[in-house]
Each structure stands twice: as structure tokens, then as C-alpha cells.
Specification:
Blueprint: H1 2-7, H2 14-43, H3 45-50, H4 52-71, H5 75-80, E1 82-86, H6 95-102, H7 106-114, H8 119-136, H9 142-146, E2 149-153, H10 163-202, H11 209-226, E3 249-251, E4 257-259, H12 260-269, E5 286-287
Antiparallel strand pairs: 1-2, 3-4, 3-5
Helix pairs in contact: 2-4, 4-6, 8-10, 10-11
Length: 294
């Protein structure tokens, strides 16, 4: 096993790591769906939906905790014939690292609940980690990278380096750069809008020659913002399931409007609209981007 670790190129293990991670994601999705169905049948659809995020996060932890603590490997790692070890020190992974690895989905849960404005940046961080994974190999998830865990093969067999992953890593790196540029552009636009609104509330502009140039810039920014119709929270239609302003408004063939996540999770357990019970499938849903009611 030591020879295998020493002779293994991280890029040669990409296929095994990806297959293992996909297998774990498949099992996690299955457990999430079955757990949600159980809570829905016991508590009812409305109560289960209210606690949806907590149920799904708990189901993910329930998958990783028994497999990691009892077997030292997830089912996906067994499928990919790999095992996790420490990058430094003793190769044996301690229990506290297994526990933190099992709870790796909690940061996104808390961001979604308490700090939604940071979610886009967290998504960019995940994409940047994936780009680094495809380009250089190593841990595929942020949790494994922070805990300094690496995956090594348990069988000696011929592995080849696939250059497609390098192309994918470059493309994902460009996507991260574009995403960061767009986020910074949005932040700058919001700041300009706040500055314009603050000046308009004061009602007085200094027209002295010294500030004439800055006022012209502010006026130009105000003119641009006046031509852009910014959606407000009050304009977002309410989802008919959670009764809150919908996130990614989505309509069904029968014309009812929901959050994308709300109706997608509903259709995993049912084959009809929750309002009129007409037949509806996930592939028939239509997300409405930049929805603004008349």
C-alpha cells in the first residue's frame, strides 16, 4: 500500500475520485428523498416543507456518520477503490475529522438560513476548489482540503491521466473569474444606487466648480440606474407552497407559480400540481428569470 501511495500521481486518481463522489451523491439523494417522504407522511406536507432544509441536512449527516465511523470509508470510496488518509502525520484519520467531514453540508445550510448574501461567494469558492481539483488533483471537496485529507488507491492497477479534466478545469477557472467579475459589478451598481438615493434624500447638491465634476458623475450614474428596472422583494410573487417570496419563480403547465426548489421537491414524491392536482413532471417546469409583475 505504501508503494501505491508513493507512486500515485494525483491526476491519475481523478476518475476514481469522481466516480466515488458521484456514487455518494446518488446515495445521499436517495436517502434525502426517502427521509422527506417519511416526514411528509407523518407530519403532513406543509409541516414537512417548513422543515425541509433541516430534514435534508440531517439525512446527509445520517448517511456519512455511520459509513465513516464504522467502515472508515464511504460507499462511494469503496466503489471507487480509494481510501482517505491524512496528508501529514499519521495516515489514520481521527474521529473528530470524520465527524467534521460528515457535517460538511452544514456551512451551506447556515448560509442559506442566516446569510444568504454570502451564498454566491460560497458557490464561487466551491467552483474554484473544483477548478483546482481538475487542474492539479487532490481533494475534491473544500471540507477534505481544509481537513488535509487525501484519497489514495487501495489496488495497484494501470491508470492514465485524462487531459479532458485539464480542459474542464480551465473552463471552470474562467467561469469563476467571470462570476467574480459579475458579483463585483453588482456590488458596485448597488453602491452607486445607494449613493444616488442618499444625495436625492438630502435634496441639495453643491454646485460649486470644485464639485461640479463629481456631481456630473453622480448624475450620469442616476441616469443609468433610472433606465434599469431593479426588482424589489415586494414585487416577487409568493410561492403557493411556502407562502414566501419565491426563489427562482417557476410555473407549471397548469399555470401555478412556486419556488423552483419547492415544486421540484414536491414532484419527487408526487406526479401532480399541489394546487389543482393536474399531471405535472419536473421536466415540464418553466423557471421564469427576472420576473417582474405588470
Amino acid at each position: 500500500m505504501d508503494n501505491t501511495v508513493g507512486d500515485s500521481d494525483p491526476l491519475e486518481l481523478l476518475s476514481d475520485q469522481i466516480r466515488g463522489e458521484q456514487k455518494d451523491e446518488f446515495y445521499v439523494d436517495q436517502l434525502r428523498m426517502e427521509t422527506y417522504k417519511v416526514f411528509e407522511s407523518v407530519l403532513g406536507s406543509r409541516t414537512a416543507h417548513r422543515w425541509r432544509d433541516e430534514i435534508l441536512s440531517t439525512a446527509e449527516i445520517l448517511y456519512y456518520v455511520p459509513t465513516l465511523f464504522s467502515r472508515g470509508r464511504t460507499l462511494g470510496e469503496e466503489y471507487g477503490e480509494i481510501v482517505s488518509v491524512n496528508q501529514v502525520g499519521s495516515p489514520v484519520v481521527s474521529n473528530w475529522k470524520w465527524f467534521l467531514l460528515a457535517c460538511r453540508g452544514l456551512p451551506q445550510y447556515f448560509l442559506n438560513k442566516r446569510w444568504t448574501s454570502a451564498l454566491p461567494w460560497y458557490t464561487l469558492l466551491i467552483q474554484a476548489n473544483l477548478a483546482l481539483f481538475y487542474l492539479l488533483g487532490g481533494p475534491k471537496t473544500i471540507a477534505r482540503r481544509l481537513l488535509r485529507l487525501q484519497q489514495i488507491p487501495i489496488t495497484i492497477r494501470q491508470r492514465s491521466i485524462t487531459r479532458v479534466f485539464t480542459i474542464l478545469g480551465i473552463a471552470m477557472f474562467l467561469q469563476v473569474c467571470i462570476g467574480m467579475y459579475q458579483r463585483l459589478k453588482i456590488i458596485r451598481s448597488l453602491r452607486n444606487q445607494q449613493n444616488v438615493e442618499g444625495i436625492q434624500r438630502e435634496g441639495v447638491l453643491d454646485e460649486s466648480p470644485r464639485t461640479q465634476k463629481s456631481n456630473d458623475s453622480v448624475g450620469e450614474a442616476a441616469g443609468v440606474l433610472s433606465r434599469v428596472k431593479m426588482p424589489r422583494l415586494s414585487q416577487t410573487p409568493n410561492c403557493l407552497i411556502c407562502m414566501s417570496p419565491s426563489k427562482v419563480p417557476t410555473i407549471t403547465l397548469c399555470g401555478h407559480l412556486f419556488c423552483w426548489e419547492c415544486i421540484a421537491i414536491w414532484l419527487q414524491a408526487h406526479n401532480g400540481c399541489p394546487i389543482c392536482r393536474s399531471t405535472c413532471l419536473v421536466q415540464n417546469l418553466l423557471p421564469i428569470r427576472h420576473y417582474l409583475p405588470s
